[in-house]
């Protein structure tokens, strides 16, 4: 199984800050990496797919990069609505077993 | 509008059976895989398995193989997740999600249901 490890597990930041979240895979997954945002009591929402492609409707302050085993999600200027938990997910496995990272909770400082 | 509508919250006793549903609309239900994801209270997302409603091809995470059954009825555009004998540890939120495709082989979960809360308590 491919394990996904995110860091940090939690993060405090202020509106306007630039924030980076890291995700590491236990083996190379090329660019088969997705990022999701989840707010309390809500379903996850897709932000980034294929490591760096922005999903439709997602603000351009979100960006993703990386390939192989190391990936990052960057929020260029935090907005109040961005405080949430973020998950990475690999979609490399076949048959499909698309494991998630443990999540990064982004809180207001 | 593309959407997945999940069945309502359930409260069950240990040992009881349960089947929850996920109905797709606004797209060709038989052309997209549907995945199931568990989220235990206060915890992260766990991949359970996935089904292709077109032919009911189903793949399970090893952690959930034998613990749940995933099925689909394409005639009514609905996928299911079922348990034959619930345990307290099955208490969680369960999400279904559609697998989207980019550039032939990049997959992601692009449409999510709102989730079904399952509570198992004596």
Helices and strands in order, then pairings?
The complex is a heterodimer of chains A (109) and B (122).
Chain A (H helix, E strand, L loop, with lengths): L3 E4 L2 E4 L5 E7 L7 E6 L6 E5 L3 E2 L7 E6 L2 E6 L9 E6 L13 E5 L1
Parallel strand pairs in A: 2-10
Antiparallel strand pairs in A: 1-3, 3-8, 4-5, 4-9, 5-6, 7-8, 9-10
Chain B lengths: L2 E4 L3 E3 L5 E8 L8 E6 L5 E8 L4 E4 L8 E5 L4 E6 L8 E11 L3 E7 L3 E5 L2
Parallel strand pairs in B: 2-11
Antiparallel strand pairs in B: 1-3, 3-8, 4-5, 4-9, 5-6, 7-8, 9-10, 9-11
Q: How would you describe this structure to a colleague?
A:
The complex is a heterodimer of chains A (109) and B (122). Chain A contains no helices and 10 strands. With 109 residues, chain A is mostly beta strands. In chain B, a hairpin with a 5-residue loop joins β4 and β5. The mean pLDDT of chain B is 97.
The most extensive interface between chains reads: A-B, 27 and 26 residues
Helix content of chain B: under 10%
Helix/strand order of chain A, N-terminal first: EEEEEEEEEE
Q: What is the distance, rounded to the nearest whole angstrom, between the alpha carbons of the first and last residues of chain B?
A: 40 Å
What is the typical, i.e. mean, pLDDT of chain B?
97
Q: List the total number of helices of chain A.
A: 0
Can you tell me the residue ranges of chain A where pLDDT is under 50 for at least 5 consecutive residues?
none
Proportion of residues in extended strands of chain B: over 45%
Number of helices of chain B: 0
């Amino acid at each position: 199984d491919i394990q996904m490890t995110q860091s940090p597990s939690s993060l405090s930041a202020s509106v306007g800050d630039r924030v980076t979240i890291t995700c590491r895979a236990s083996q190379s997954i090329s660019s088969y990496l997705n990022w999701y945002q989840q707010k309390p009591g809500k379903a996850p929402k897709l932000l980034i797919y294929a490591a760096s492609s922005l999903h439709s409707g997602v603000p351009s302050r979100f960006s993703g990069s990386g390939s192989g085993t190391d990936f990052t999600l960057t929020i260029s200027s935090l907005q109040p609505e961005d405080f949430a938990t973020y998950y990475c997910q690999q979609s490399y496995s076949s048959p499909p077993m698309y494991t998630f990272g443990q999540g990064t909770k982004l809180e207001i400082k | 509008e593309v959407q997945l509508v999940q069945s309502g919250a359930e409260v069950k006793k240990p040992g009881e059976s349960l089947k929850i549903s996920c109905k797709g609309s606004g797209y060709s239900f038989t052309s997209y895989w549907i995945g199931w994801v568990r989220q235990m209270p206060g915890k992260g997302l766990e991949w359970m398995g996935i089904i292709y409603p077109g032919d009911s091809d189903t793949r399970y995470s090893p952690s959930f193989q034998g613990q749940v059954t995933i099925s689909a009825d394409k005639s009514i555009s609905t996928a299911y997740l079922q348990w034959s004998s619930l345990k307290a540890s099955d208490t969680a939120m369960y999400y279904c999600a559609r697998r989207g495709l980019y550039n032939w082989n990049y997959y992601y979960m692009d449409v999510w249901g709102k989730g079904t809360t399952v509570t198992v308590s004596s």
